[in-house]
Structures are given as C-alpha cells and as structure tokens.
Amino acid sequence: MVTAEQVWAALEEIPDPEIPIISLVDLGVIRDVSVEGDRVRVEFTPTFLGCPALEVMRRAMEEKVAALGGEADVRVIADDSWSTDKITPAGREKLREAGFAPPAPRSAGATTLVQLQSKAFRCPYCGSSETKLENVFGPTPCRSIRWCESCRQPFEQFKTI
Description:
Blueprint lengths: L3 H8 L12 H4 L2 E7 L2 E6 L9 H14 L3 E6 L12 H9 L2 E2 L11 H4 L14 E5 L7 E6 L5 E5 L3
Parallel strand pairs: 2-3, 4-7
Antiparallel strand pairs: 1-2, 5-6, 6-7
C-alpha cells in the first residue's frame, strides 16, 4: 500500500520543467497529497494557470504515483493562486546556487516599479545589493533581468508574486 510520505518523496524528484534545478515540491506548487487505498489524490496549483508546462507536470506526477503502485488522481486547484512565498527555504537556496535571485517575501500591497528599481535585490553570485533593473521582462512572466554593479554579472530575479 502506498503512503502519503512515499508520494511526497517521489514528487520531490520531479523537476520543474522550466527550471529543473528545483523540484515541484520545493517550488511549492504541490498543495496536498491524500491516499485512500490505491487511489492517490494530488492537488497542485501551477505558478500560472496558463502555464504551458501544466500537462507535463501532471503526467510526471501520474507516472511517479503509478511507479509506486498507486492510481493517480491529479487535480489542478484554481481557487487559490500560487505565490512566491510558497517556495521552500531549500528551493530558494537551490535557485540562488544556480544563479537565480530568489524572490523577496511579499509585502502587503502590489509590487510597484519603484520597488523593482530598488536596491533591495541581492546578486546571487556575490551577494551585493548594488543591483539595478535591466528589463522587467525576463524569459518567463515571473522573472526580470537585473545587473550587479559589483561583480558585473547579469542575473534573473524572480518577481515577488
């Protein structure tokens, strides 16, 4: 019989399709796992509901559950949006080690352009806060491009969502 702990451990092995250095669990998109007999229900909320990797993630979860001997019921939960606050501390460190600046914790209210242009963002390479916004539009909607004035490296900054 499959346990919820086994399912969580298996889901921890699934890399995010766009940023494979972080798992779906560390990204915080897996909301719940429940097991009743051989039936395994996995609830997840993708980073964006229009995410092109939605089906890839769903299939990967179904395959992991099947490999454990369970019957997967993977559901996309759209009644609550994902936020960058759901990224685990381990996931934030994996992002930093790979050269991505993890998002800052959300503050009350919406993010403004003034906040994006602030010196509050640290370079993942040298740790300097002497960074500047190069382009609010990065390779995906959740990232912007910044430049470190200390080590002179460009890097991707996760937007706080």
